[in-house]
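RECORD TYPE: inverse folding
INPUT: structure tokens
STRUCTURE:
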């Protein structure tokens, strides 16, 4: 059983578990609780997945390069700083990175496409966060 709300997918999770379960761009992720309690969501995305759009720059939530969308079944999706988000806190949530905004065929999100087409960036490091 899975619940879908546009791009967000949730899988029912038990209240007590030894693993942190969440979806990342629609893919179910499972992480040991011991690992999840000592890492941020940004560290997990950067080191354990193929998604490289979510960056780490200031590490204090000020620059926005680490922005992702976090959604829970009972809440509206919201932008959060993944560098400040403990990995354990996303248990049961749906996480969307800038790569998750692209269409299935790889076509970029219209905002990303327009920024690229009209030279809307300088070095581009923080652009994924701006798109989010």
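DESIGNED SEQUENCE:
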């Amino acid at each position: 059983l899975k619940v879908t709300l546009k791009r967000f997918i949730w899988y029912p999770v038990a209240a007590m578990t030894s693993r942190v379960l969440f979806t990342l761009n629609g893919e179910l992720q499972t992480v040991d609780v011991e690992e999840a309690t000592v890492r941020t969501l940004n560290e997990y995305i950067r080191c354990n997945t193929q998604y490289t759009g979510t960056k780490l720059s200031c590490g204090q939530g000020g620059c926005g390069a680490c922005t992702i969308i976090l959604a829970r079944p009972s809440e509206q999706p919201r932008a959060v700083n993944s560098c400040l988000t403990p990995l354990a806190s996303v248990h049961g949530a749906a996480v969307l990175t800038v790569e998750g905004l692209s269409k299935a065929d790889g076509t970029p999100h219209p905002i990303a496409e327009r920024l690229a087409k009209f030279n809307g960036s300088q070095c581009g490091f923080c652009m994924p966060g701006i798109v989010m």
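NOTES: The first strand starts at residue 3 and ends at 5.
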